[in-house]
Backbone:
């Protein structure tokens, strides 16, 4: 951070605040940065803690889950169709996405010395070729119900259950073009083809659908909905469960939260 300030001073930005965003929970943990003549003006962004306030618009099921998190429950992943890393609660949704990637083997459309075992894909059993050492893995997955191979842009096959395959294909078909470049679909906003030129990636997901589901989870199945959809959370979200301020399930108002933050905690 000091190197950043020194570089900024070279451009005459001595009094421009540096905003620390990410990993901020208690201000007292950053007391060496505050009122530091070397660092100059510093500001802090609180993105996670305001989630758990009475005014926060996230569903009650989301708030309840935040209070139960433990260290390690927030998982940094690259499944997002944006292509960027995101931090989210390690729930059933992420478990299933990891499972897709783990149930994956390379394939070729023509036999080679490395890819030499024929394998039929799809209802018509179109022939592709696998590594001999991967055949046993595929057979094991198929015995567990993962019998539907889906092709990826990286010339691999991902094995999923029939129900999951139908859901993935339906979500890709229903694409609303919410991203200008989406890994999960082949949509692009650039003509004339309006395609990104790549095969849609079944290892990702429809971000619009899952964010809508998580944001509006309600009723008796709300906890289940939160487990089966993307639940964002900062890397420090697990601290809700250990911070005494939230003891016994306490959910503050925004005013109470700001007053608490100003104490250093």
Residues:
């Amino acid at each position: 951070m000091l190197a950043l300030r020194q570089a900024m001073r070279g451009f005459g930005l001595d009094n421009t605040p540096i905003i620390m965003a990410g990993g901020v929970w208690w201000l007292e943990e950053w007391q060496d940065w505050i009122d530091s003549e070397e660092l100059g003006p510093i500001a802090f962004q609180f993105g996670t803690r305001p989630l758990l306030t009475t005014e926060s618009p996230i569903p009650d099921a989301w708030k309840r889950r935040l209070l139960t998190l433990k260290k390690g429950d927030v998982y940094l992943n690259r499944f997002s169709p944006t292509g960027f890393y995101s931090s989210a609660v390690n729930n059933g949704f992420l478990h299933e996405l990891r499972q897709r990637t783990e149930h994956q083997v390379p394939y070729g459309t023509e036999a080679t010395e490395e890819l030499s075992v024929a394998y039929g894909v799809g209802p018509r059993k179109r022939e592709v070729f696998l590594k001999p050492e991967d055949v046993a893995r595929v057979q094991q997955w198929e015995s567990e119900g993962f019998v539907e191979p889906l092709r990826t842009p990286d010339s691999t096959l991902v094995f999923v259950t029939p129900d999951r395959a139908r859901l993935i294909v339906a979500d890709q078909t229903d694409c609303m073009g919410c991203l200008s470049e989406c890994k999960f679909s082949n949509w692009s906003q650039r003509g004339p083809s309006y395609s990104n030129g790549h095969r849609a990636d079944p290892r990702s997901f429809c971000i619009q659908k899952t964010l809508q589901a998580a944001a509006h989870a309600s009723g008796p199945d709300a906890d289940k909905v939160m487990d089966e959809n993307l639940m964002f959370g900062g890397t420090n979200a697990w601290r809700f469960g250990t911070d005494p301020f939230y003891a016994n399930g306490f959910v503050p108002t925004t005013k109470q939260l700001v007053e608490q933050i100003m104490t250093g905690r």
In short: The helical segments are 2-9, 60-66, 92-102, 132-143, 162-173, 207-215, 222-227, 254-262.
